[in-house]
Amino acid sequence: MTVKWLFSSALVFEASSWAALMSNPTIAEGLMLSVLPHAAACVLLTVALWLLLPGRYRRPLPWAPLFLFSIAFFIPLLGAIGVVAAVFPALYTQRRHEEQVWQATGVPALPFRPLEQRKSPMFQDGGLQDVLHLASDPEQRLTALLATRRMAGHEAVPILKLALRDPADDVRLLAYSMLDQKESRINQRIEKLLARLEEVSEEARAPLHAGLARWYWELAYLGLAQGSVLDHILAQAQEHSEKSLSIEDNPELELLSGRIALEQGDLDQARLCFDRAEEGGIAFPKVAPFLAEAAFLSGNYAAVPALLARLPEEMLRRPPFAALKRYWA
């Protein structure tokens, strides 16, 4: 609406300017009655056209509108007509660029050998154990060991133990140091719990015994103990688990106690603990894998597929149960 008003006003001023010229005015009268209305018409026309221009053509200021005003003002009548005739067709008949959907290119020739090859790449194809076995550069093997810091403990420890047999001293020392750190942290927690155990009453010892059972089990589960030391660690874990359960019921601890008994080879005790854990409220999918392991170790192979079949379908689609389902199906 504003643009239409500007155009209409410009037309009125321009018409009055030409009407004044038709009356043969003097120079002073012509300046007042013809030039000033013409200037006003050019200003209104410039503003109207500038508002219609796309944003990228309105800059820079003030040169873009001044250019339109100069053409319209210094070329009477024809200038204004020429500006309108030039701008309007450009606004309403813009050239459209069709979007190019695809571009045909030739197939580049593959190089005979890699264009760039780092001497010691940080990552290699295959697992970290393959790097420790096959990598000839000690730096690569050290990098593989450092990568185990982001892995779960039970996955990292076998790799670190493998590195203990590495021919390079730096690799062996780093692996030993990382294993020692893991074991030291667990032993420190055990020592703190044992110290607190002497300071509390018998009724308050249940969570401390439970914590000791879990940390002793962690030593065994991570593979940080072997031989007679492993037997002692498992015995300590089972002892503290039983002491905690004698004070208060704990289904989670019953499940842990069953896993400890399973590791000790006491299958009957393991099944008894798993049954108590399930009765205490532990969901069957958490207990079923250990019941299946106990059935397998006892030679009751027919019970294994029946136990696996009771697991949720989404659980059977994930490793390691997906492979077990295919094998026992």
UniProtKB/TrEMBL annotation:
Transmembrane segments: 35-53, 65-92
Record keywords: Membrane, Transmembrane, Transmembrane helix
InterPro entries reported in the protein's UniProt record: ARM-like
Protein name listed in UniProt: Transporter
Species for this entry: marine sediment metagenome
